[in-house]
Amino acid sequence: MAGGGATESDQASGRYPLPEPRRPGDVQPSPRHDEDAASDAELLQRHVDGDSNSFGQLFERHRDRLWAVAIRTLGDPEEAADALQDAMIAAFRRAASFRGDSAVTTWLHRIVVNAALDRMRRRAARPTTAGQDDEALDTLAVVAGGQPLSDPSGTTDTALDVMAALRQLVPDQRAALVLVDMLGYSIADAAEVLGVSEGTVKSRAARGRARLLPRLAHLRPGAVPSQDHGNRAAGPRVQSAQEGGDEAL
Amino acid sequence: MNRHATLDELARLGADDLRSRKAARVSTHLAACTQCAELNDQISSVPALLSSVQFPEMPATLAVMIDSTLAAEAARRVAAEPATESARRDLPVRSGRSRVRRGPDRPRIDRAAWRPVPATRVLATAAAIIVVGIGAYAIASHTAVSSSGPSGSPAAVASPPLASQVSLGPSVTYRQDDASKSIQTVTANADVKPATLAGQVETALTEAKMEGMRASPAKTGIHGSSLAAPTSTSAVNGSSTLGSPGAASASSLLSGCIARVIPRGQALLMVERAKFEGKPATIIVTAPASLSGTSPPKQAEIWAVGSACSATSTDLLDHVKVARL
Q1: Distances (CA, A) of B279 to B51, B129, B130, B275, B293
Q2: Distance of CA A124 to CAs A119, A128, A129, A132, A168, Å?
Q3: Chain B residues near residue A69 by CB distance under 8 angstroms
Q4: Which of chain B's residues have a Cβ under 8 Å away from the Cβ of A247?
Q5: Which of A49, A202, A249 is opposite residue B17, by nearest beta carbon?
Q6: pLDDT class for B253, splitting at 50, 70, 90?
Q7: What is the pLDDT of residues A190-244, one digit of tens each?
Q8: A205: which chain B residues are within 8 Å (Cβ-Cβ)?
Q9: Averaged over B300-320, what is the pLDDT?
Q10: Which pLDDT value is given to residue B71?
Q11: I need a surface site. Which of A81, B130, B190, B210 has the fewest CB within 10 A?
Q12: CATH number at residue A222
């Protein structure tokens, strides 16, 4: 995913490319204080040096992308809001630890993903009350100032089904699918954000897709929901394959 | 390959996660098996399905909330700086530069720094700092200590509010909860500092009340002891009550800014044109609607926004919550 920013088509499709990683030497204080022209690294360095506004500018610049990661990873607007806020506070305080080995935006993404994964793991560790997930999905259906969650077909069912299916995945697989499939990051960028090897990202994404398919088969283009014959026929095949059934020819 | 491919194998094939020999075997099988080819099509469609789902955009209220949290963090950081003369001169630039220098000897970041911190805790900390600032201001104002004293604390660095520096300005109309309301702005010549923001706002509120008592309450929207009750003005259009086109444009920006900043369930108490750390700024004071009639206002929130604040951008300079003004 080369390039320094999102193109119009990227924005339209909801995919957010990451800038190319910078070298450590890029993080240098700039003699200029032109806020618009300041790079992410310059803004972060100014923040580390004590400037009160730089981090806010950095957040303003990337907040939509960071929100996109948080909401897709957690699937719950309230949890996503908390995770994003936690992440920004952590980034604010940890800015001095940024070594410049990656792009600032990659570093920010990593912190947001980690905050989201922490929340997912905590949620998984504590006993859930019945209906908690339904509550989150209900919230997801009516959020953002009353704007309903939507998909291209104009219904919320697809989105809710997808989120419900994603919730069944382990956090690491889910994070990989969010970055690679939902947001269109390259394997290399996703690996950098997640702090794992590219092979690990591929493996997590593949296993995640394999586990999602049985839950999403009815949403495939052309599939007729519920009682469709083709769909029923596909179900057991998918199920046996997922379980590793080595059905002989 | 004398069996069907598993779903896992197909997914790994699509993700380029199979060893080349196994990938070749599965591919060969796929070419001859329509059942597996169909399953492969299904799993290949998963990424497209996932990417087609649209999610809600970031709520504007969340952006404002995080902006304010970061501003509170910044204020806390500035307030914690050693009050040396050079540090004061360079504020808000941090003086302890060596502490953040990167290098191999830099201590590891404590894991606790990763621990999520609730926004309320951060804001409470900021509020506590403000309270200390108010105390310092009260002492300074009673003992007439110069704010530019060389050994003052950060709180003492801020200019104490001067008497009679507040005057009533033009009214501004804004929208809240689908209703059009207006409030008379207050103009102050004070340079507001983060450390004494709450104290200076309290002074401005008091002085505006005195000014408002000489004006028509219905006209100013400032009346009684609460300074609350921006007047609902369905008859007033959204432009402004100002005269010149430039002023109207500024008022329009301010209208949008107020509508963006004011949280749901909060009532607007005061809109003050002032300076914040030397920059043109607007101080917006809100309190829970249910408590805005109390005197003094409880649980007030103070928003310092820059001149770029509008309906689409907050340009937040500082935000604090105070238990009581």
Answers
A1: 44, 22, 20, 5, 31
A2: 8, 8, 12, 12, 11
A3: none
A4: 3-4
A5: A202
A6: confident
A7: 999 999 999 999 999 999 999 999 998 777 665 544 433 333 334 444 444 444 4
A8: 15
A9: 84
A10: 86
A11: B210
A12: 1.10.1740.10
Compare CB distances from A249 to B2, B16, B55 and report the shortest one's residue: B2
Q: Tens digit of pLDDT for each residue in B201-221?
A: 877 777 777 666 343 333 333
The DSSP bridge pattern shows strands B179-192 and B266-276 to be: parallel
Window 158-217 of A: residues touching B by CB (8 A cutoff) are: 158-159, 162-163, 177, 180-184, 199, 202-203, 205-207, 209-210, 212-213, 216-217
Question: What are the helix (H) ranges across A21-53?
Answer: 40-48
With an 8 Å Cβ cutoff, is B63 touching chain A? yes
Confidence of residue A124 (pLDDT cuts 50, 70, 90): confident
Q: Which residues of B touch A64 (CB under 8 A)?
A: 57-58
Touching A: B residues 112-151, CB under 8 Å: 113-114, 116-117, 119, 122
Q: Which residues of A touch B317 (CB under 8 A)?
A: 53
Domain count within chain A:
1
Q: Is the pLDDT of residue B102 over 70?
A: no
Assess if residue A58 is contained within a domain: yes
pLDDT at A101 over 80: yes
Residues of chain A positioned with their CB less than 8 A from the CB of B62: 67, 81, 84-85
Rounded to a whole number, what is the largest CA-CA distance in chain B?
A: 95
Cut 0.90: pTM above it: no
From residue B100, alpha-carbon distances to A61, A94, A141, B83 in Å are 23, 10, 44, 19
CA–CA separation, B76 and A79 (whole Å) = 26
Instruction: Classify each residue of A87-111 as buried b or exposed e, where b means 16 or more C-beta atoms within 10 Å of its C-beta.
Output: bbbbbbeebbbbebebbbbbbbbbb
Q: In terms of Cα–Cα distance, which of A108, A113, A110, A83 is closest to A175? A: A113
Interface membership of A81 toward B (CB under 8 Å)? yes
Q: Give domain status of residue A89, yes or no.
A: yes
B7/A213 touch (CB, cutoff 8 Å), yes or no:
yes
A26 interfaces chain B, CB cutoff of 8 Å: no
- Which ipTM score applies to this complex? 0.71
Domain that holds residue A44: 8-125+138-242
| pLDDT tens track for A128-144 | 554 555 555 555 554 43
Nearest CA in chain A to B81: A50
Tokens describing residue A217: 């088969």
Show the CA angle centred on residue B1, arms to residues A244 and B3, nearest 5°.
Answer: 40
Q: Where are the domains of chain B?
A: 7-52, 166-324
Q: Distance (Å, rounded) from C-alpha A162 to C-alpha A219?
A: 9
User: Of chain A residues 102-131, which have a CB less than 8 A from chain B?
Assistant: 114-115, 118
Q: Which residue is closest to B39 within chain A, CA to CA?
A: A238
Q: Is residue A20 part of a domain?
A: yes
- A24 in a domain, yes or no? yes
Considering Cα of B323, then B310, then B203, then B82, what sign does the dihedral take? positive
Residue type, B274: A
